[in-house]
Every structure is written in C-alpha cells, then in structure tokens.
Amino acid sequence: MPKKFNEQFNLAGQIPLITLVALCVVTALLTPRFLSPLNLTNILVQSSIMAVIAIGMTFVIIGGGFDLSVGSTVALSGCIAAMVMVKFGIAAGVLAGIATGAAVGLANGLIIARLGVNPFITTLGTMVLVRGLVFLVTGGAPVGDDGMPAAFIAFGSERFLGIHYLVWVPAVLLVVLSWVMHATPYGRRIYATGGNREAAYLSGVGVERIIASTYVWCGALAGVAGVMLAARLQSGQPTAGEFYELTAIAAVVLGGAALHGGEGTLYKSIIGVFIMIVLGNSLNLLNVDSYWQRVAIGAVIIAAAAADRLRSRR
Questions:
Q1: b/e map of 204-233 (b: 16 or more CB within 10 Å)?
Q2: pLDDT tier at 1 (50, 70, 90 boundaries)?
Q3: Between these two residues, 145 and 77, which has the higher pLDDT value?
C-alpha cells in the first residue's frame, strides 16, 4: 500500500535526492562547465524522454513486474508516428505513435496476466520481436527526415516560458499520474497487487486487469517517449532506444522502488533518472573514455539491484 505523506518525506526516504545532490556538487567542483546554462539545459532535455519511460516503468514495477521491451517500443512508436505524420498531419502521427506503444504494452500485459508467462521471458521476446518489426517497417532507414511538419520539429527544439517543450511533458505527466498512483483506488490496487497478489485477489482486486493495465501504461508512455524522440531527432530512427530499458529499470530502483513490487513513488523514479543522466553527463565532462562510462553505468545498475535486494531482506 502507498506510504503516508509524512513517511515518504523522512530523511531515510530521501537517499536518492541526497545522492543526486552529492553527485552534482562533486561534479561542479571538478568542472565549472557542469553548472553552465547550456549543460544544465542539455541534462533537462536528455532526462525528459527517459523520465517519461521511467514513469511507465514505475507502474509496472510497483505492480510486481518489469518490462524489457520499452526501448524497442520507443523506436517503433517514433517511426510509426513519423510515417503517419508525413502523410496525415501531426495529430494523427502523435496518436498513432502512442497507440502503437499501448498496443505493445497490451500484448505484454495479456500474455503475462492471462497466460501466466514470466515477465522476463515475455518482454525479452517482445523486445526482440518489436525491434525486428521496426526494421521490417522502415527497411532499416530513418523515416520522415525530409518531410516532418515544421511545427513538430519546433516542438523538439523550441521553448515555452524559457523551458524546452520536451521538458514540460514529463512535468505534466508526473503531476497527473502521481495523483492517479497515490490518490485513487486504482493506484491502491496496483500497490496491493504488487505487494501481495494472492491477498489482493482474495480482497476482491481484479489482479489480471490491474497487471495488464500497468503494462498498457508502460507501453503508452514509451509511445509518448518515442514521439518526443522523433521530434528531437527530426525523424523516426529504427535504431533508437537501445539500452533504454536497462536505464529506466535502474532509475526506478535507484529511486527506491522494489523489484518484488508494492513499493515506489513516481517522483523518486524521476530523481533516479536524473542520477543516471547526470552520471553520464559528468563522465563526459571529465573526458572519461566511453568504454569506462559503460563500465561505470553497468556498475550503477548492479549496485541498484544489490540495494534493492538488501532492502527486501530488511
């Protein structure tokens, strides 16, 4: 069940925020470029797309599952959105991209909830399947790079009230979906299902529907992220989204969500995203070799999983 407001904001519960602040302070001391307006803007824009994915992943993880297919879903949604947008306009393209993501999520949810297939096997399979579909649909070439609507391209590069349009998307989603997750009966059912599926079933929760719905949320938000990425890249890229699933899962766990389900908050998942993005940005500014960057990020993912295991034992 979701924690009470005052329990969420105790000092022990703010370790993700403290970690982020410490990482920013250390990097700022090591290189003055970190606090430059250009670099901070770059961090916000990079974080925006991953934040949307992490919000969806939080729904799934709190519900007791996880999704390895989000990176492939981002690529497919972005390419479908670009293809439809070139022919039928921005609104149709955006809806097509989000619907594509939701369809992938629905397929995952039904296979896992109705057939009882392990989430790891299911989403690993759809990760490969969907990536194959992307290459089949696009022929392995970028989509719409010579005919994207100017207004859509502007959405990926321009600002509103001094803040990039892309950054506003996760900000709005965080407010709305935090209310859904933490202040509605539906949100409480997700926590109950992830915390103890059998007890939730015996108390009248439609467990299968709840599980399936979390994957639909995750897929739909991956679709939103795909549309955002297409706007930023000014085209649909079939190779986009690689390793996004690992970064999103690591960010959610770094934010305090439990891989066994039933625990987590959306705003802390966003903090986890910032930890991952700031870490990569810091290593770039410090001219750390790209190979060592992969080692460092991999170590963070392992550390996040180990921390989750220790929390579950306690």
A1: ebebbebbbbbbbbbbbbbbbbbbbbbbbb
A2: very low
A3: 77
